[in-house]
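Narrative of activities, Objective 1.

The group set out to show that a structural description can be obtained from nothing but a protein's sequence at a throughput compatible with the screening campaign. Below is one input-output pair from the validation batch, recorded exactly as produced.
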Amino acid sequence: MTTLDVRVRAARLQFNHTLLQRLQRSTVARQTILALGDAMVLVVAVLAAYSGRFGLDSLMLDTHHEVPLWLAYGMPGLWILMIAVFGGYSLPHLQTGMVEYQRITLASGTTAGALGIAFFLSKYDLSRGFFILLFLLAVPALLTLRLGRRRTMKRLRTKGMFQAPVLVAGSPKHIDEVVQVLRREKWLGYQVIGAVTPADIEETDCGLPVLGKVCQVVDLVRETDVHTVIFAEGSFPDSQHFKRMAWELEEHDTQMMVVPALTDISSERLTARPVAGLPLVQVDRPQAMEAARWIKRTFDILGSSLFLLFASPILLAVAIAIKLEDGGSIFFKQVRVGRRGDEFECFKIRSMVVDAEARKAELEAMNEGNGVLFKMARDPRITRVGQFIRRFSIDEVPQFWNVLRGDMSLVGPRPALPREVELYSRDAVRRLDVRPGLTGLWQVSGRSDLSWDDTVRLDVYYVDNWSVMQDLSIMMRTAGAVLGSRGAY
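Output recorded for this entry:
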């Protein structure tokens, strides 16, 4: 038995083909399950709209109402067909939530338009109440089902289920970069079983076994039943080799993925422009300038005003609790660095003892922060009231006043201290090109649990790829992060 055979057999033993994993590999099975789930939701929505318009007794009758049951049960079939036409069951796009939700919404809108036109041209007297109620119930239900599916799959994949076996090809350095991301983000569902590289080594620096050379990919796919092959830099000496590899894998049910040299660029900024067979990718300029324009500022003013109004009773209750505990000041002011390096006074509700800054020096040796930040999971300076308000980020509510004044934004990088900015690297300085925010990608991605490098990377990604939809998505995710107290201390 050759060394390659031994490694292949070890890789096959490493990946346990359970029933769930086989189901994950079956494209038809997954698409069928998605369609059946949508069909069940639509049938329930049709029946609910029908009974809502005509009463519960109407479900037992077929001749006394405007909408016959044969039409009500036929609508889900047309709807499912329209979702399929718009790519709602295209598995490669189900990894991207916004794309999936957009396709469901467009398919639903087209279905409503098509039915409306068909009933109008045929002069069919359809109940308007039923028609409107159906779409008011069905569209949110479909989106909720897809959201639930995504969250369920994320949890299962994080626990090691529904993992697809993956080979990574390229130079050892680039292989390790890809492997580190896939191991950290288990929810993506990729289980790396080995590497193929031109280098003559037994394993990469991160401990991934090398199963062979790039020219042996087809044999490895056949032997290990690999679901996906990821080609990183250093896989081939030229583009023609990749094309020939695609020919060889054409007969196998294996997905090919390419890791480009571009990193931390959102798909919205990328546009593929094939020119004479050359796959050129146009990259739009970074969005830091757009993030400072009137659309984001208007959103900040409206949002901060409304939140301050509704949060005023909470602020009053917290103020009373602080006064009763130690009689100290309610608010805490601290100089922070804003956009373009301008300093401002950042307001917070005091969550520590009155002399917290004076006692900080003696705690520096116990710093658990990520790089330039000072953090302690059990900071002795935090008061009892402070523990509660920090857990749910109530101490940051006064910063909505900073947002209203224009010092900060609702969404953006964390406002930094002047001494922290002095330690910034070139990449970290990029965070200062937009207003600091109450929340940001760092918060919804782990808050205090993130390393400093990950915090900088996420903030720079936000600055470069800002969009209104991203701000809305971050604010929605922030609610879950705050209520769940994830990474907050």
